[in-house]
UniProtKB/TrEMBL annotation:
<feature type="region of interest" description="Disordered">
    <location>
        <begin position="1"/>
        <end position="37"/>
    </location>
</feature>
<feature type="compositionally biased region" description="Low complexity">
    <location>
        <begin position="18"/>
        <end position="37"/>
    </location>
</feature>
<dbReference type="InterPro" id="IPR036264">
    <property type="entry name" value="Bact_exopeptidase_dim_dom"/>
</dbReference>
<dbReference type="Pfam" id="PF07687">
    <property type="entry name" value="M20_dimer"/>
</dbReference>
<dbReference type="Pfam" id="PF01546">
    <property type="entry name" value="Peptidase_M20"/>
</dbReference>
<dbReference type="InterPro" id="IPR011650">
    <property type="entry name" value="Peptidase_M20_dimer"/>
</dbReference>
<feature type="domain" description="Peptidase M20 dimerisation">
    <location>
        <begin position="228"/>
        <end position="324"/>
    </location>
</feature>
<dbReference type="InterPro" id="IPR002933">
    <property type="entry name" value="Peptidase_M20"/>
</dbReference>
<dbReference type="InterPro" id="IPR017439">
    <property type="entry name" value="Amidohydrolase"/>
</dbReference>
<protein>
    <submittedName>
        <fullName>Amidohydrolase</fullName>
    </submittedName>
</protein>
Amino acid sequence: MTHPGPGVMPGLEPPTAPAAARSASADAGEDAAGPGAALQPQLDAFLAGHEDELIAFRRDLHMHPELGYAEHRTTRLIAERLRAAGLDPRVLPQGTGLFCDIGPAEGGTVALRADIDALPLQDEKAGAPYRSTVPGVAHACGHDVHTAMVLGAGLFLAQQAAAGLLPGRVRLLFQPAEETPGGALDVMAAGGIAGVDRAFALHCDPRIEVGQLGLRTGPITAACDKVYVKVTGPGGHTARPHLTADLVYALAKIVTELPSALSRRVDPRSSLSLVWGRISAGSVANAIPDDGIAEGTVRCLDDEAWHRAPEMMKALLQSVAAAYDVEASLEYVRGVPPTVNEAGSVQMFRDAATPVIGEEGVVPTPQSLGGEDFGWYLESIPGALARLGVRTPGSSGEYDLHRGDFDVDERCVAVGVRVLTGTALTALWEGGRPGDAEPVQGAALA
Ligand SMILES: [Zn+2]
Ligand SMILES: [Zn+2]
């Protein structure tokens, strides 16, 4: 749209011609660009009345951050605002986090997810009037921004629903405890994605500028699990290793051979890696101990390799241990799966974002080695996570996530509301049913 109303960043208006062309073709019903362009005047009007409120909401959360499973105030504020808009939010059984349905159940259901928890970090921002008032707790991952954006999208969609304009149902998911992690599993246990056809989420990205959206088909975040190996043997004198089991030698073999054998059992593009962080055995120079341990982390970019990793590792461990006549056991603790973006859902993000930020605003984004528990939802249903630019154009500050000085250019809130709203409506209007979209496998590791 061309008029820079509130919420539209100067310089971010898309070119007039494509937007107008899309509006005109929207009458055909099967507009490939989705409803994004036609929506913008209504979003302009909505944001003129609500952008300041959403930014104030974000700042309030920022000043009162709450750690995972302790987000009681945050949950209450979100629920109160949704009720004030005539909606009926449902708080999760453990008391924090909530979800809220908008629109008719017929016609498919699309979820927009925000995470609401903060981090155990000191807010080190200098000069921001909205810095954290809670010592040692800060919204340093942008979840306050995610919450404000999904709330904004929900308030707008509630207006659409009241006017009978919503072609299906949108479920707002305000998830607790992303950083802990585990909140996604609680949402799922409470039926939060039951009946949901697709799920979408935005995450703040300080590496790209406000007015940009980073998209990627296939895995966009990584898995990170922990492994604990315990090795036992009879122990004995170091003069007679042949009469016992040379446990320290065996443990050293396990520690060196497991990572290299593992990397040769999976597609190298999956980047399955095992890195040890702790090893311990024995207490004196001349006695072979009867037990030893090794602990490490497993990171993986590929969902299939991640699923196979525990069994593979167990088998390899047994074969190495057997060669040296020691007993070995493996405890494999799952973290989060890789978040694997489905191609059709990524395209919906693209279709919704283009009228808002222009084609040049949509940029490719690399896969992060960080974890994100949104990946749990996408194990069950298709969807996508996108990176929302939050850096002020031209700024010299090197903000990063999980740092005490992390902050955003708050114009990102309006961009996020527009993108989320457009994406949800695109998904509903295009059917958004699982199986409609092209499979993701081939593109996953491209
Ligand atoms: Zn984080
Ligand atoms: Zn985060």
